[in-house]
Fold these 4 entries.
Entry 1:
Amino acid sequence: MRKIVLFFVLLASLSVGAQVKAILGDWKTVDDKTGEKRSIVTIYKGTDGLYYGKISKMLMGEPGLKCTECVDADHNAPLEGLIIIRGMSFNAEKNQLENGRVLDPESGKFYYGKIYPKDGNLVLRGSLDKRGFLGRNQTWIR
């Protein structure tokens, strides 16, 4: 009986691992207003078990751009290497990252965020409220 239970627990954990792998990795960010490709963001799992995303490469703008609108430790930090997705957890039922914060480097403001795969792309929902009613989406491409 124990072997059967262990088998199903292992099977469930492999399924969750496959789901989250659809979110991890490198994504091209696309401006939801202009349609321009802006940067490459790498989404990864941190040592604390939560998920993060950093700007790996800027695709537009001058080299060496800094986050002038950011506050605290992020103020004047280079955009390349800046962690813009912070402390998200994976919800296997909804197949999404949630309960974290998303930094908008243009305004320096943090928003509630959730991230989920859709049609081979990734949707980032940033919002003013935790439920996601007051916000907007960006679709990122692999």
Note: The beta strands are 25-30, 37-45, 51-58, 83-91, 96-104, 109-118, 121-127, 135-140.
Entry 2:
Amino acid sequence: MIRDFWVENYLSIRDRQSISFVSKSASDFLNVEVAPGVFLNKLGIMYGANASGKSNMLYAIQNIFSVLFKSHTDIGDKVTSARPFELTKDKPTKMHITFYAESIRYDYDVEYVADYIIKELLYYYPNGSKALFYERTFKGTDIQAEIKFGQSLEMKAETQKTLKDNTLNNHSVLSAYRKASFKEDIRPISLLFRWVEEHIHEVNGDSVKNPIEELKDVFNDEKRKKFYQLMLKKADLNISGFRPVTVPRNVSGKMRRMILDDASIPESMKKKFLSDVEEDIVFTNKSKDGDFEIPRRLQSMGTMQYIKSLHFLYDLITGNHVYLLDELDEDMHYDLVLYFLNVFLFNSDKSQLIFTSQETALLAEDLLNEHRDLVWFVEKDHKTASSVYSRADSYGLHKNLSLYNSYKIGRLGAKPELGSPFINFD
């Protein structure tokens, strides 16, 4: 779980912007005690106008884990990152994150430019006390970085040399674990590497499959299928089940010739495109006159968006995952969004969900009014054109004042300034 994070000089974020998931009080369902007296919120929601920078904070969180986890084999590859802020693009990007993996706290700082990492510093708390994991400093374009490992790792000199030799200037020391084999058990490194690999997800999921492939896999997994069927029934979509089917494919003669003549299309893909049949999903609907099936293509966008969200929800409540979702509520009815959040909060253990939203009605719910540390408001600084992130409990609002009403009248910012609706072309 993420404890806190800050970033500067990244996309729309110029000056240092911080978010924290440390809760001020314990809750039976909103937060988790990750260390004695340390409670972390399971939920974080960001509001703001279009182009305010809400999504960029999600991508920044994804980015710091990508820098920590992903390696390169070519020294010419760029550091895994998006662009820095345009007006300070000659300066390095800086990031910090504190997170808990398997109940161990890690503090990670990194500073980099497009071509190389300037420095990175990783501490951990294996027995509750702070200890160095490693530190690394850039020495020159064609020179191996200076790397020092903490004594608590108890790594042999040969193992340290292997990691150093496999660390290029454009990726982290930890990610070098992917590039070499070792003669000894380097458990602290492998545990952290595997935890990031298995529990941290990219924005909107890791290469989520198309709906047909996703639902085929679900159909063949009894536990997951049972969950999907239950959630579809609870969503009042009049859907009681689904199944994969094979349907005829109609390819016109003209399209067939174009595919056959296109040398850039691999033969395996040509075979798939020209097949007489294709796979699809049909959904079973109930009525008093009997059941009937409706193909996937005739389902509403909201229904398909809800089905897509079940992939994330299942992971969140059956394991310990961090998901970053951009516009979770897109195309979904408000009640479905609220239900999704309640299922997550009441059934998850140490998972964390951070998402952006335009659904301001959520701000009227007791859930957010009584726990304002779950909400951030994001707006553009008009002087610097960069994004500013403010947690809802930082405004000093009286507990009886509604977040929804305060936001609606502009008291909390993070709203577009639209002006008069009358247009004068002169």
Note: The chain is about 30% helix and 25% strand.
Entry 3:
Amino acid sequence: MIYMVELNYSDPSTTKKWNSWYETYLRQLVSLDGLATAQRFQAVEKGTQFWEYLALYTVPNLDVYDTDAYRAIGGGGNASKAFHHAISRRRNVYDGVSRMPEVPETHRVLLCEDTAQGIGLPGILFVPLKASAGNQQAGATKIDGQPERRAIALVDAASVDQRNLSAIEGLAVYRPITAYYA
């Protein structure tokens, strides 16, 4: 299952500090039992879709968010309190991918919203994602449960540029901004 966090950050004066904090936090998260992978991304074209940042995690279920270990590292938003004034986010968990693969700098994540099949793009295979939890509190983390259906694909950066994929309505294109932690 994929735990997906989409974020906007609105304070340019602290963006660098926030990104640095988040990189450290990813390393802490993958040290927890039940959180297998973590990686962050940023929109290729700022302003072309609603969410500028994306974080993708692999979890077997929501139990990790109800552990003392998760709360101890500030899980559920407690670790990021210094940045709450500038954060807006949406969180969801999806079935469809059992383990999120590493996305190297040479590749991009494509996300479609409110469609299970993706956008018909020749040569690009979208994997359907279905929300595995509705709007609920999962331990220390609030799951929004929306959108219920999405589609995800990985594609090389050259194809994104050649085909101008970031200009397609309803398609969000993200580049990796952190290492892949596992």
Note: The chain has one domain: 2-176.
Entry 4:
Amino acid sequence: MTFQNPAQETIQGYLKDAKNIAVVGLSNKPDRVSYEIAQLLQEKGYKIFPVNPVLAGQEVLGEPVVEKLTDIKEPIDIVDIFRRSEFLPEVAREFIQTDAKVFWAQLGLFSQEAADILEAAGKKETVMDRCVKIELRNL
């Protein structure tokens, strides 16, 4: 079945209810979109969990970076993904090994294969090709 995003109200509900957001592919470079959006999430009161195997063990935006989603020990409400579309199935397979609630691929990112993996695992809360920053502005 072809993936479709949830209704706008549902997407906004995810952001209203969330407290903890894992940021997959977070860069330590302030000029990168992932850094800018993670910083905005912090300013809006969310706790971020940076996920980047290249930077694991370091800190970004004052938070320790972990190698993979399964290394996060706290509950995750949204997994905000800044990896190219071809990596989304890999992230989806890791996502279903966690208790994270919402799989969110940023603007320009989409993978039907990832959507199929998530649906097969019963993970219905999926958003793709949408920007958290834009959605926060619309709240």
Note: The radius of gyration is 14 Å.
